[in-house]
Design brief:
Elements lengths: L1 H23 L2 H8 L3 E4 L5 E7 L2 E8 L2 E10 L2 E6 L2 E8 L1 H4 L9 E6 L2 E5 L1
Antiparallel strand pairs: 1-2, 2-3, 3-4, 4-5, 5-6, 6-7, 7-8
Organism: Ectopseudomonas composti
Protein name: Lipoprotein
Keywords: Signal
Length: 121
């Protein structure tokens, strides 16, 4: 029952979250996130793949359990999406900011949260 409540809350939050995205995201912000299209690699075969447009990004995030798909939107210089009832955001960082020792020396990375990052060489 609690899981259903979390899903309902997340579903209710998405339109509110995304309603402001189109108005608050300028063309400059969209150009930032459009540069992130394609595949970003993490350690041990994990990856983040981004396709689509700033108003309808298709995200595939593969961890050690396998790939999962999400829909996101550009909001500022981030891509915002909902995963397991939690609003997450993808932002540009360097390898050190990912919090992952395998990526420390990388410069061109995307981070969802500390310990979850993906880079391009």
């Amino acid at each position: 029952m609690q899981r259903i409540a979390q899903i309902i809350l997340a579903a209710a939050a998405i339109p509110l979250l995304l309603a402001g995205c189109a108005k608050s995201s300028g063309e400059q912000d969209a150009k930032v996130t459009e540069q992130w299209l394609g595949r970003w690699n993490g350690p041990e075969g994990t990856y983040l793949d981004i396709s689509g447009t700033p108003t309808d990004y298709r995200l595939t995030i593969a961890n050690l359990d396998g790939p999962r798909r999400f829909v996101g939107r550009a909001q500022g210089a981030k891509i915002v999406f909902v995963r397991d009832g939690v609003v997450e955001s993808i932002r540009a960082t360097d390898g050190e900011a990912t919090g992952m020792k395998w990526l420390m020396d990388k410069q061109n990375c995307l981070t969802v949260r500390s310990g979850e990052g993906y880079c391009r060489d």
